[in-house]
Write the structure tokens for this entry.
Amino acid sequence: MTIKVGDTIPSVTLKHLTDNGMQEITTDEVFKGKKVVVFSVPGAFTPTCSAKHLPGFVQQAEALKAKGVDTIVCLAVNDPFVMKAWGEKNNVDNKVLMLPDGNAALTGAMGLTMDGSGYGLGTRGQRFALIAEDGKVTDLAVEEPGKFEVSSAEAVLGKL
């Protein structure tokens, strides 16, 4: 079942690579008591994700934070090493939390996976953006396959 507005972000533990090595991070740590924007991409280093999706959120980070957003999360069903390298390549610094969902634990729990095996990608996350306040989804925009319209940084800014 797909997560919807009013639902709580599922409680899962993910691993991400920091300057202090591999660390566990829970969704409670990410969302509790905060306004969080999550944008999900089908894959790091893929064309639309690299040319538009991630760069848009990096460029609009200050504007999003000015609207009360505490944390901007880039979620992808990729491993921690790839997500760290992709973040470094795109100069995300501390603007965006690069959150790998290597086993699709969070994406699957939200019902937002897709089958990318036709492209050699296996299980991946759909392209979407959501806004959550204190762990509750207040807005969710899922892209139609192959589209990039409703999950951009500008689209999210328009909803805040």
Remarks:
- The chain has a mean pLDDT of 93.
